[in-house]
């Protein structure tokens, strides 16, 4: 998304990616592989490069933006499938955080592609929240993990496939 904004100047803000991508119902056959520095897990190909394919005269920036969001979802699916294959553990849901989780379309696409519930806390950066909860648990602010869970479960939005 940053590349679309800063390098191609297709969008002015990251939030605009959601609005544009929602303006079309599909990618019109446009696919994007964001391998700017190679393909990472699970492919590990440092010689791979990014590519946009499927461009026709009918393709608009909305299709390219939507293809970019879908590419993020496909990358996540590949990593999750590799983790499941290696561990034998198959998740029933996926908890997400970070700046991109502000994009509701991205989370709906991810839920559909994975066939899993996607759980997003209303605080985008939950790493710091988790550290605070752990510290609180260590010093007795919270009596148990259940106490912490009860505090924040109501602040989670779920995106279903």
Regions with little confidence, pLDDT below 50 for 5+ residues:
none
Strand order of the largest sheet: 3-4-5
Mean pLDDT: 93
Order of helices and strands: HHEEHEHEHHE
Quickly list its features.
161 residues; alpha+beta; 3-stranded mixed beta sheet; two-stranded antiparallel ribbon
Topology:
Blueprint: H1 2-6, H2 14-22, E1 31-33, E2 51-53, H3 61-87, E3 93-96, H4 104-114, E4 117-121, H5 126-138, H6 145-152, E5 156-159
Parallel strand pairs: 3-4
Antiparallel strand pairs: 1-2, 4-5
Helix pairs in contact: 2-3, 3-4
Structure description:
It is globular and about 60 Å long. 45% of the residues lie in helices and 12% in strands. With 161 residues, the chain is of the alpha+beta class. It has a 3-stranded mixed beta sheet. A two-stranded antiparallel sheet has the order 1-2.
Short summary of the structure?
The chain has 161 residues and is α+β, with helices and mostly antiparallel strands. Helices cover 45% and strands 12% of the residues.
